Amino acid sequence: MFLMRKRLALAAMVSLIPAVVFVNTALAADRPVKKSVDFTATRFSPQLNGPTNALGKTGVVVKIKGAAIASDGTITVRATIVDSDGHPLDRLGVTTAGPVSMRFIAAYIPAGQSQYVAYTTSVLKATINDNPSQTQAANDAGGTFVTNAVGDYTYTFATKAPANFDATVTHAIGVSAQRDLSEFGTFDEWSETSNDVFNFVPNGSPVTVTRSVVTTDACNQCHNPLIGHGGSRLKVELCILCHTPQTINPDTQLTQDMKVLIHKIHMGSSLPSVKAGTPYRIWHRGQWSDFSTVVFPQDVRNCTTCHAQGATQADNWKTNPTAAACGSCHDNVNFATGANHVNLPQPNDNQCKNCHGSQATLDFDASIPGAHVIPSNSTSLPGLVTKILKVDGTAPGTTPTVTFSVTDKSGVPMDISKLASIRVILAGPNTDYGTGPGGIRVSEDPSKTAGSNGTYAYTMTNKIPAAAAGSYTVSVEARNTVTLLPGTTKATQATDAAKPMRSYFSVDQGPVTPRRQVVATEKCAACHQNLGFVHGGTRNDSQECGMCHNPMLTDGTSKQSVNMAWQIHSIHRGENLANPYVLGTTNYQEVRFPGDLRDCTKCHLSGTYRVENVGAAALVASPGGFTPTTPPISAACQGCHDDKATASHTLANTTSLGESCATCHSADAEFSVDRVHQRIF
């Protein structure tokens, strides 16, 4: 599994493209300068595509209504632009606020082929060496607009299709529209953007051939929003009109073909070439975009994370293997000579499917799905299933007895003495684990407990604290190490981890109150697929994490808080932190979050990030911070806003009565969390 360190994989392509909106680079000195966003201007502005304000509507939505290519090759397109509420926009910004620029690209899919070739191109010269110039797909330049009505325009391309263009094949017109409201002091160049792509066949026939291998929705699982080229590219459907095999970077002579480029970016630090010492970087617009430190936030063998259902050719990754696509990740393979390809040269892609089929017979076989099996996901694993059947001895001052079962996924009882690891965890109170006079968090090994038919009754050695009150939690975690395909040359060890199971109980005969849920494992999985990449695979559930990462937990080296809210906010904030967040020897300022940090709902359940919904919470131990302890709301906020000014602000607004955060930051307040975190693109 890939740890979320260094840079989280990438975005769309900021400078060059990327990477999840940002360019990942190895050294700070190598990073391109990122344009700063003036949040003072945006905090009081409505969100993109939001409500009306004093300046008029915000947002822009572009829609291509039709396109045509005349017999002489003249390309025309009709497009409309409206604001977020559907009101037409003046392209020149005379009768409505802010001019709107529209950039168009025209491309087609040649007969018998599957990728676009752009009609609109430009010639780029190398700037750091004497490499030959390259013709690249690009926006059209020099075309003319005709106003049909306000918000309704016809654009005639300066570029013409060749005289012998094929009118029977799929053509596409792509547009990026950007509305400039800088005159009114709102937003920046990344905001007020809309894309659209229109497919058609010039002779009027229905469109039967398209290219849709990955959808924007799939990208936005992590890269929400997907942003490329300074904010003008929001849809992968537009990206593929330029990032075609015809587009070569002149300075590096590297292809910018989408399938190669994106595979390499997401593979990043795991590329064989990078491991061998050759960085993967592109010289673009006067600076290096270095992707050599990208670390994908899940196992890169999860092809279906990106190649998800919804795309017409979603199965291309397994049904259409090519040297270009496969060699983009496996870039130490020389298909011409056969090196690192079991000595079999492949001059073209004609025979790829003969060995690399779309259906696996065995794990790790030569089929595409088989070769990408993640050992811990193998269907041949026995599987571990734990259940807590009951908890006895739950009064304060007593040692609880936890009765639980362990079976494989078929229901066959498991001998826990033969497992690689099994733990019973006791934590409480559920309001905030490990805090107060009744606070506890202990982990014990029950593996020597005798059982019957997979059922075990383990009496803990630790007692429930005498001062305990309210509700507490017990949990069972288990994992095993299994050899897949034993006795073969493909024998592989895999971690077989159970989903941790919890049981909540009252220690004082009161109502049982579960631990509050703030985030969801499913939301974590959007980027991480499986949280089992941490702690040996047994903590693969977000609710489990808080039992250990409680307000009292600090790092033994840096003394930084490792309370769940503080730690996860700090890790995901990463390179945008004011101060290094170091746990052990790992500096999480290397992390680059692939989406928009202001989107609290990316991880949080609805409303749980709001200050008024924190509920009962304890002081957070923070000896490595500005103060020895930090109040709970302040601690969560300081995980991201880690500068001294913020710490001083929270300290000044906390009295013996508690924090006053809700006064200014509650849902209806002027500086509500939703308002100060509103997204500007």
What's the SSE blueprint?
Blueprint: E1 7-8, H1 39-42, E2 61-69, E3 74-82, E4 100-108, E5 117-118, E6 121-124, E7 134-137, E8 144-149, E9 152-160, E10 171-179, E11 193-200, H2 216-219, H3 236-242, H4 258-267, H5 272-275, E12 281-284, E13 287-290, E14 294-295, H6 316-319, H7 323-329, H8 352-355, H9 368-371, E15 385-392, E16 401-407, E17 421-428, E18 440-444, E19 451-452, E20 455-459, E21 471-484, E22 492-497, E23 501-506, H10 521-528, H11 542-548, H12 564-573, E24 582-583, E25 586-587, E26 620-621, E27 629-630, H13 632-638, H14 644-652, E28 654-655, E29 658-659, H15 661-665, H16 673-676
Parallel strand pairs: 1-14
Antiparallel strand pairs: 2-3, 3-9, 4-5, 4-10, 6-7, 8-9, 10-11, 12-13, 15-16, 16-20, 17-18, 17-21, 19-20, 21-22, 21-23, 24-25, 26-27, 28-29
Helix pairs in contact: 4-7, 12-13
Give a quick summary of the entry.
This protein is α+β, with helices and mostly antiparallel strands.
Could you name the key traits of this structure?
single chain, 681 residues, alpha+beta, Immunoglobulin-like, 4 domains, four-stranded antiparallel β-sheet, 16 helices, 23% strand, disordered N terminus
Question: What does this molecule look like?
Answer:
The protein is an alpha+beta fold. It has four domains: 7-34 and 258-371, no CATH class; 61-242, Immunoglobulin-like (Sandwich); 385-524, Immunoglobulin-like; 551-676, no CATH class. The protein contains 16 helices and 29 strands. Strands 17, 18, 21, 22 and 23 form a five-stranded antiparallel beta sheet that branches. Strands 2-3-9-8 form a four-stranded antiparallel beta sheet, with no helix packed on it. The radius of gyration is 28 Å and the shape is globular. The two termini are 32 Å apart. The model is unreliable at 1-56 (pLDDT under 50).
